[in-house]
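Margin note from the TA: students keep mixing up input and output lines. Inputs are the sequences; the output is the structure of the whole complex. Example:
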Amino acid sequence: MIQGIQQVGLYVRDQDEALVFYVDKLGFRVHTDVRNGDYRWLTVQHPDQPSFQLGLFTPGPPVHDEATAQTLRAVVAKGAMPPLVLDVADCRAAYERMRTLGVEFTQEPVSRYGNVDAGFRDPSGNGWKMIESRR
Amino acid sequence: MKVDPAGQDPELLRRLLRAKDRMDAASHEDWSIRRLARVSHVSEAHFARSFRQAFGVPPHRYLLTRRIERATALLRDSDRPITEIAFDTGWQSLGTFGRTFRDVTGESPSALRARAQAATNELGRVPACIVSAAHRPDLTIAVSEKRRRGADGKNKASTQEVRR
């Protein structure tokens, strides 16, 4: 077996909205979508990376009290969560495709030291960098 | 600053973030409160206060830190003339740029360039877009206040600069 990181989670404001964003706009696939009452365990996967899951979770009960949930929602909406990085083969092509789909870009593709990077946010406010590395 | 214990509405914060993102993307442009308020779908009267409450710094001071950050990167990573960098990062005059840069960072643009280019680049493994943020000036007080304190502390004959 391969050892390593299996899953990292993000907080999102709405799981339905996040699912549409990560699946329909970024091209991820749903790995797990299980409900138990109000609780929903939702993870998605990059199609080229079957060993890694990205969890899309909403702050709130039963995991958080309301004050904590409110703080977490505010932190995400302010864009204060750490940067996420997506590797792509062609940054400019991905930018054009995603922009057409209505992805909110914060930075157009820029060449730096042979790499090309762009920036976008998910609907909740999580910030992504999209990087095409020099091969 | 008064902070509402219930906190700001996340939906408002998300819209304020959009204004911050727009300044990040084009810090050289003019960002009037009217323009920023429109991006956030907030009234002009509420924008500055809401922004400050959300991000801990008034919008125009935030813009200033981004301009200084970008100028710093250009001074460090390019050989472009300082005048060109000043105009490209949103200043109307070289004098204002030089004075503000010194007030904020504590050194002149040319001194920073000399020092930064001599230092080895240990941040080579961090994505360049993220490295830039690590060099953002931490401007917790207004530049005018910083200028005043500097003049008081130094006890020099530069006091004619203070009252402007």
